[in-house]
Amino acid sequence: MAISAFFIPSVNLMGAGCLQQAVDSMQAQGFKRALIVTDAGLVKTGLAQKVSTLLANADIQSVVFDGVHPNPTCANVNAGLALLQEKQCDVVISLGGGSPHDCAKGIALVAVNGGKIQDYEGVDKSAKPQLPLVAINTTAGTASEMTRFCIITDEARHIKMAIVDKHTTPILSVNDPETMAGMPPSLTAATGMDALTHAIEAYVSTIATPITDACALKAISLIVAYLPRAVENGQDMEAREQMAYAQFLAGMAFNNASLGYVHAMAHQLGGFYDLPHGVCNAVLLPHVQVFNSKVAAARLADVGVALGVKASAEEAIQAIRTLAATVGIPAGLTQLGVKEQDIPVLATNALKDACGFTNPLQASHEEICAIYRAAM
Ligand SMILES: [Fe+2]
């Protein structure tokens, strides 16, 4: 067996009320000035102000950068970086879902390593650890609060850059389900299906290990049990807490086993049409697994068992479709505005995305086009 590495933040706080504990930990580490990277929505809900107040009570000054776009761009990274440098911050706090975490990683990475964010596209391109990053998660989720993955849209090329770098790992991740209760049903569904995609892609990955397998299968069984409940009733705190654990476990799996063609292909849809990441994954997931079942039927049979159906690839794929429909995911890419004539260029870019390198079966350009078409 090949050598494997396992990356995870050194401290990970889980559970209702752990936000205060995170602030206490930052105070104990002597941080003085924080850049809070978030989006306008979380400023409106008052959560950004709540975090600023908790920090002030712990003698940590803070400044809020709320310019993160749902698909964060190079321009967002540059704007946040300028504010960080102007205010001479010694720590970055990301507050939100995947978009603020990814943007904050970009800011923190360039702050120390210099150059521009495009220089770090690919795997482990940076020389030094980023500025310390504390990631406070409000969705369940991308798991970006605990991964070394950073996805930034290059608006000039209309693509999402996959930056996979051990130096972007946050020093502390915070999953407090109280900060997740306000998520609307559609965001709960999309982010939950993203987590399911992480677990399944990691489980069938060519570099899966017994550690990532255990994380992936547990994540899948929690998601099928609790995602419909969290979508149905956002105040169901048991479902919120279990989904926080599920998405974290899925993150542990894919942070180390990487992903596959669902993400490689979904990134192109996000970059090209500015579509929500979780919805793109949810639509593509069963179609990519039909392709993968040529070589990974036994692994997909295990996924079926974790989903509570029979040990078969077909049953697993059907269970994925059923779950997606239950939580209100659109049936196909046409509904999302994807155009048939764009498919060849989307496929070309998908084959360049680092996430696809660990898919269990490598595809030709024609095969990627066929998967997109099947998902229309
Ligand atoms: Fe994802």
Automatic annotation (TrEMBL):
InterPro entries: ADH_Fe/GldA (IPR001670), ADH_Fe_C (IPR056798), ADH_Fe_CS (IPR018211), Alcohol_dehydrogenase_Fe (IPR039697). Residues 188-376 form the Fe-containing alcohol dehydrogenase-like C-terminal domain. GO terms for molecular function: alcohol dehydrogenase (NAD+) activity; metal ion binding. Residues 10-177 form the Alcohol dehydrogenase iron-type/glycerol dehydrogenase GldA domain. It comes from the Bacteria. Keywords: NAD, Oxidoreductase. The keyword Oxidoreductase applies. Pfam families: ADH_Fe_C, Fe-ADH. Gene3D superfamilies: 3.40.50.1970, Dehydroquinate synthase-like - alpha domain. Its cofactor is Fe cation. The keyword Nucleotide-binding does not apply. PANTHER family: ALCOHOL DEHYDROGENASE (PTHR11496), ALCOHOL DEHYDROGENASE 4 (PTHR11496:SF102). Belongs to the iron-containing alcohol dehydrogenase family. This is Alcohol dehydrogenase. It comes from Aquitalea magnusonii.
